[in-house]
Design goal:
alpha/beta; AB_hydrolase_1; Class I poly(R)-hydroxyalkanoic acid synthase; two-stranded antiparallel sheet; transferase; acyltransferase; 19 helices
Length: about 600
């Protein structure tokens, strides 16, 4: 709000306010009672009060910090000097003089987009004071000597979580937009926000499940995941979807997509305008995709190799029966790419060359630099996860969702706290956030194998250190021509880590780097005209050397990939109708597996 502009003040209706608060009190009492009852029955009080080992990490950091008081005092003096400068410049502004900010938020920091953060001297002071404190806190913990790498990363990560949580934008009295709205609506925004909060607590059965979008605005198969196709085969772990062609002729060699099972496959088929699947069909590919089951306790013992046998290998057999084609081109996305690479090594050992080209979207094979997800991988936390999975038979999808949301807390947590609870606004309908909230579970055996052998021990990158179906996996035996697509701002699969993995194969590798992150870098249709990508005809050992000599191209990387994969198309054949293939149609796409929701 501008400094001399008086807002319109709306007095609250005492009758409506009383009714609302009564309703909220009744709902709160029921929620608290139910939650405490469940906690007691679960024996929560007897559990480790710090299962993540965060307290231990910070205790070690504090001990080492106090061992060097001179360094700590220097950091304090720097902060005091910054604050003194801020006071001086704020005083100048109060007297109508121009002054430059001591510190400014990052360009992509949307917390301070309201004009009052700059125009109002008081809020500008609050903003800069917070930014100075945040910078000091994070730099101080980052410069502590003697911490092992994992502890240092954990301290840095959770320090940032604390710093983000304490932002002035997250509180009524220090957020000018919220304060202005509260005055203008007579506090109706806060009452509505409290109702939203209780609704989210109720949806999470006592645990907060922040609503990121209008869940009633989307329905899988109705206005999301709507590319026409048929389910032509299924196992306990997946349904195989074949999509209806849109061109008179198609590539002779089918395209098989192996998505991750951490989320639903339809990230590649959100809506017509941003569907990679529809675009690929329109380019003349016969597209098949594996739609993974959302497992329950009955599938607790399904392991990583079961996803290979009942997923990728079963799909290959089914595609041959449907189309008569033995060979395919394949795509693996994230964890699906890790599975595809492992399967290629298994197939190489079995002299099975049915996959003629392999594309990897944001896929890690070498987990040496696993990014911020490695913060959650240590013995304490793995033991906790395995204990939870032992009770249920799977890892609850909400646990995975919370972990990924913490990687971008300002965008995926606190922005919704402000919008939903402080401003009292309804969540905006957004297909990507609907997909993001459509959580999936992880079978206990598979997830434990994946976390320990790949994230914790990095065994997949070591020849023969992991075995699937009795076959030692050695990625160096993979000679399949490969296309690696990574994203420059990917927090889940850091591009320099995926680049290391691209060097594990013996066959020809084309590496392409897209702008943006794990999702937007992949789901970037050409028609959008967004972002850019980098290519290089060479593959030097160091990722920085690759980027330094790469060529930047504006727009989507999709056509670049299509030009590459088309060299493995094996000619053209008349379009294939899923209803006239070699296997009976089971149901329409997207299939029943994709429609199972656990929210």
């Amino acid at each position: 709000m501008a400094e001399n502009q008086a807002p319109d003040v709306k007095l609250p209706d005492p009758v409506e306010m009383s009714r609302a608060m009564t309703r909220i009190a009744e709902q709160s009492q029921r929620l608290v009672t139910d939650f405490l009852s469940r906690q007691a029955s679960d024996g929560v009080g007897a559990k480790n009060p710090d299962p993540m080992g965060v307290g231990h990490a910070f205790l070690e950091m504090t001990t080492r910090m106090m061992a060097d008081p001179a360094k700590l005092m220097k950091a304090q003096m720097t902060l005091w000097q910054d604050y003194l400068t801020l006071w001086q410049r704020t005083t100048q502004r109060f007297f109508g003089q121009e002054s430059q900010p001591v510190i400014a938020p990052a360009k992509d920091d949307r917390r301070f987009k309201d004009s009052a953060w700059d125009e109002n001297t008081l809020f500008d002071f609050i903003k800069q004071s917070y930014l100075l404190s945040a910078r000091w806190m994070q730099s101080t913990v980052n410069e502590v000597d003697g911490l092992d790498d994992h502890t240092a990363k954990k301290v840095d990560f959770y320090t940032r979580q604390f710093v983000d949580a304490m932002a002035p934008s997250n509180f009524v009295m220090t957020n000018p937009e919220v304060l202005r709205t509260t005055i203008e609506t007579g506090g109706e925004n806060l009452v509505k926000g409290l109702e939203h909060l209780l609704k989210d607590l109720e949806r999470g059965k006592g645990e907060l499940r922040i609503s990121m979008t209008d869940y009633d605005a989307f329905q899988v198969g109705k206005n999301i995941a709507v590319t026409p196709g048929k389910v032509v085969f299924q196992t306990d772990l997946m349904q195989l979807i074949q999509y209806t062609p849109t061109t008179p002729d198609v590539n002779k060699r089918p395209l098989m997509i192996v998505p991750p099972w951490i989320n639903k496959y339809y990230i590649l088929d959100l809506r017509e305008k941003n569907s990679f699947i529809k675009w690929a069909v329109d380019q003349g590919h016969t597209v098949f995709i594996l739609s993974w089951v959302n497992p329950d306790e009955k599938l607790a013992q399904k392991g990583f190799e079961d996803y290979m046998f009942e997923g990728v290998l079963a799909a290959l057999d089914a595609i041959e029966k449907v189309t008569g084609e033995k060979d395919v081109n394949a795509i693996g996305y994230c964890l699906g790419g890790t599975l595809l690479a492992s399967t290629l090594s298994y197939m190489a050992a079995k002299k099975d060359d049915r996959i003629k080209s392999a594309t990897f979207f944001t896929t890690m094979l070498d987990f040496t630099e696993a990014g911020e997800l490695s913060v959650f991988i240590d013995e304490e936390q793995l033991t906790m996860i395995e204990s939870q999975m032992a009770q249920q038979g799977y890892l609850d999808g909400s646990k995975m969702a919370t972990t990924f949301n913490m990687l971008r807390a300002n965008d995926l947590i606190w922005s919704f706290v402000v919008n939903n609870y402080l401003l009292g606004k309804d969540p905006f309908p957004f297909d990507l956030l609907y997909w993001n909230s459509d959580s999936t579970r992880m079978p206990a055996a598979m997830h434990s194998f994946y976390l320990r052998n790949m994230y914790q021990k990095n065994l997949l990158a070591q020849p023969g250190a992991v075995s699937l179906g009795g076959v030692p996996i050695d990625l160096r035996n993979v000679k399949t021509p490969s296309f690696f697509l990574s994203a420059r701002e990917d927090h889940i699969a850091p591009w320099k880590s995926t680049y290391m993995g691209a060097h594990l194969f013996s066959g020809p590798v084309k590496f392409v780097l897209a702008a943006s992150g794990h999702i937007a870098g992949v789901v970037n249709p050409p028609a959008a005209g967004k972002y850019c990508y980098w290519t290089n005809t060479k593959l030097p050992k160091a990722s920085d050397d690759w980027l330094a000599s790469s060529q930047q191209t504006p727009g989507s990387w999709w056509p670049e990939w299509n030009n590459w994969v088309s060299t493995f198309s094996d000619g053209k054949v008349p379009a294939r109708n899923p209803e006239k293939g070699g296997l009976p149609v089971l149901e329409d796409a997207p299939g029943s597996y994709a429609k199972v929701r656990i929210v």
